[in-house]
């Protein structure tokens, strides 16, 4: 894997140099993880002006390696003594001494105070904005990254499938969420990708609903959204069911509407498709049925080392999809006081010649009565 991380750092160095800064300082943990293999607490990564000058600066080692990933064994490390100062500030001085005449930094990850401290160390070294250069590199995944996402999806499918076989009536949202999270770990997840959402009755269909002590009742819609973290890579799945009885007509109608929107979004995933076009494909079905005000604000987003990363599939998003980009497609409608439906899958954009979008989360999307 050392070659993979080295190649990623070369691509960042080239991009930074083309923008006028021969060196770059990466401080955002997910970006450090992407370029170095792991992100020890408090570490920053200096991508130097020449190959072989990259260095990871980190506070005194605690003896425990990071939980996610494994550090590139060929990457030089500089471990600071206790009380040795801020690694980012020391990295600025190191960049100056390595011959860099400008240093690109992740301004979106820095506090004003930290940026000022970095600038005060080497006033003759301009600090420029690296912006979201690393996040942009992370959008297209290699097959090893996709393999991790595929396993994460399998784990989430297993956990959800087992829950559907248990008795649900009378149990609280909070209890079901905790059980799902335990099952994720039991099946091999390193942890949860995000806090599990279980929403029943009038809560169902809400995006990001936090579980409460409301108990599952007969006739409820039950919306579940969960995800697994496997080797640092995160996926998600969301499904909606009816509890204990034949679905009411309004539930069937609403479910079929959201399912049609979700299918349209999935089918629009292709290299070259605009981010906003994917959103529009799903959203126009909901809008036409009178749910413009009750639909979720975006149709999907990228996944990877973070659960919500670029690209954003929203009405105002700019850009086009590439092959090997994993995204969610998750339209939903929530009717205040009644409940609603969310259907959420993780897929990988593929060329039509390769079979089109690869569906990673395969739990049935049939409207089941549990």
UniProtKB/TrEMBL annotation:
Q: Kindly list the organism's lineage.
A: Bacteria, Bacillati, Actinomycetota, Actinomycetes, Kitasatosporales
Decide whether keyword Lyase is in the record: no
Record domain Creatinase N-terminal: where? 8-140
Per UniProt, what is one Pfam family of this protein? Creatinase_N
Query: Its Gene Ontology molecular function terms?
Result: aminopeptidase activity
The Peptidase M24 domain sits at 148-350
Alphabetically sorted, this entry's keywords are: Aminopeptidase, Hydrolase, Protease
Its recorded name reads: Aminopeptidase P family protein
